[in-house]
Every structure is written in structure tokens, then in C-alpha cells.
Amino acid sequence: MAIDFTLAPEHEEIRRRVRAFVQDVIVPAKTEGLTREEYLRTIFGLRERAKAEGLWLPHMPVEVGGMGLGHVALAMVQSEAAKTRLGPWVLNCQAPDEGNMHTLLHWATEEQKEKYLRPLLEGRAMSCFAMTEPEVAGSDPTLIRTTAVQDGDEWVVNGHKWFISNARRASFAILIARTEPDVPEGQRGATTAFLVDIPSPGWTDVREVETMHGSTGHSEIVIEDLRLPESRILGGRGNGHRLGQYRLGPARLAHCMRWISQAETALDMMVDRALNRYSHGSLLADKQGVQWLIADSAMELYQCKLMVLHAASKIDKGDDFRTEVSMAKHFVANALNRIVDRAIQVHGALGYSTDTPLASMFQHARWARFADGADEIHQMRIAERTIAAYRDTGSTRAATGGLPL
């Protein structure tokens, strides 16, 4: 069996182009201290340059204007783009729009694609995914309480959502609501996805929820008697859970791709600091305690990359990738937290300050351990699949990647 981690020449060339574009075009762009009008003009100018360079929509098929990359090649592009905060947005492969594009491409009718997908593809609109609620555990979408009740040719929606990323900037939402009251709580098949124009009567953005890193676009939404026509159902009645899970699988891995880039940046900073900081008779790089921090981080980053590449290859081959993506999501999120934390430690008080990006990176990294599924939920699913594999075959091999070892 051949195991080859090299990219095809054309994909290696794409990676080089993305890296050069990020370093030569995005990084030098001045975005600090600008008025909102100047900032938007700068950002949209960068997007036009990305389109001209053929670096637009790396996650979408060629027939809808994308680069047509598989998930292995996409991992390279996402990790390069995420070297800077603006990178994924400039290439139009940022969350939550990226996952919503996949969802619309797979589930939407032709009319829905024209109205909602096309503006996303062209960079003329932004979107959000409204599922999480304050009254029930966000890790269990079968408990959703937002209801949609049929009234003639319309549906009347009432409910409460929060931590809806990008809602304040979105022109539409994919909303998950309970439509099947006869399905017992905790069972699948009770919810339906709807497309909601923003703004709409009955959709109220109450506030942006303040988080560890400030108010940055996670909205609390109150929905009161929001009326939607039947044509706004996305993916068929009762398919809300299936649609959500379809969306979250590849989206989780895309997060991992971007987190790897952040972890690699933190490790680079850690080593650079160790090579340039002199204390107690030697450089930090010569001290065993610091070497262990570097070694642990390098080993974990290696594991992260292997897990993401393997999970991506399974998606590309059409194999069942759920266990591998769960493992990658859990491990990469935790490794990111540990690596950034070590980088802060090596930088000392400087790392704790805002003079370097590490403090901000650490605040954002903490979110990774519950976004798109908390650590404990992924551990539970991994354990369930491992037990099931042993019951079915007498071996756990299938639950540990199905690799030839």
C-alpha cells in the first residue's frame, strides 16, 4: 500500500501561490486605524485581487466558480490562508459561510440556490446558521425548542437563539426549528431547516454576546411570530438534524485546518523567542525545560497534521469519516490550546500582554474546545463507535482509522 503525503504538482503550485498571496498582498495591507468605509474598500479590494489570481472559493466546485479542490488540497489552502486573520475571508472560505455554501449546494432547490447561494459565491452577501439555543444544551440539537407551526401556506416560527455567529452581518440565516411535535424529545426527525431573510418582521437581533475576546459577532436572537412561506424550507421537512450533521462534518475539519495554522504560528514564535532570549547564562533554547515545551508542541503539531490529512483523504474517497473527524476536532482543538499556552509561557510577561498576538490567539483558542461539538460529545461518540466496532468484529481496528498497522 502506497502512503504518499506529497501533493500533486498542480496542488503544490496552488499552495505556493496562496502562501505568496498571503505574505505579499494580505499581510502588508493596512487595515488598522481606518474608517469603516476605508476598511471595507481595502478588504473588498483584496477580494478582487484574490479572484483575479484564481484563489477564490477553494472549497467549491469549478462549475459554481470555485477552485474545485478536494479536502486534502483544501487543507493546504486553509492552513496557509489562516496565517493571517483576514486570509480565509479574502479567499471567501470563512466560517460560517463556507459550511453554508456546502449545505446550499447539496440541499437547496434551484430557485433557492439562485437567491441564497449565488450571492455567497460572488462575495455579495454573508450568512449565518441559527441552531444553538440558551434554554437547552447546544451539543444536543434534538432538544431544540424553537417551533415552526404550519398555518395554511406559511409557517409561523417562535423561539430563542444565541451565539449565532455572523448574524449581525448576514443577509440570511439557515434556521433550525421543531416542526414535528409527535417526534419525542431527543429523537431525530423533529426539526426542519428554513431560509430566513435578514431583516424580517419577527426576527430581532437582541445583542452581540460578550465573550472572552469581546463582542465580535455572536448574536442573541428572539423570534416572535416570524412567518415563512413553504418555499423557504431547505432540504425537506423533518431533515433539520440530517442537514445540520451534513454541514458540520467537513466544517469541523475546516476549523482544524485553520487551527493548525494558528498552532504553527505559535510554535514558530516560541522557537524564535527561545533563540533570541538570554537568561541565567544561556539562551532559552539551550535550557531543557524550554526544549521540552518545544518538543511537546512539535510532536502534537505533527499528530494534528496527520489526523487532518487522513480524515480529509477519507472524505475525498467517500468513506465514512465521522470517527476520524471527531478525533481530529477534539485533538487539534486541545493541541491548539496547549501550544499557544506554551508559547505564552516562553514569552513570559510579553506573551501575556497584547504586544504580541498570542494573548488574542489564546482567547480564541479556548473557544475551539466546544465549537462544533464540545470535547465531551466527541469523546462520547468516539467511545461509542469504538465499542460498536469491537462488538461487530472483535477488534477496535475500524475505530482507530482502519489503517494497515
From TrEMBL:
This is Acyl-CoA dehydrogenase. One of its GO terms (cellular component) is cytoplasm. Residues 9-123 form the Acyl-CoA dehydrogenase/oxidase N-terminal domain. Belongs to the acyl-CoA dehydrogenase family. Keywords: FAD, Flavoprotein, Oxidoreductase. It comes from the Bacteria. It comes from Herbidospora galbida. Its cofactor is FAD. GO terms for biological process: fatty acid beta-oxidation using acyl-CoA dehydrogenase. Residues 238-385 form the Acyl-CoA dehydrogenase/oxidase C-terminal domain.
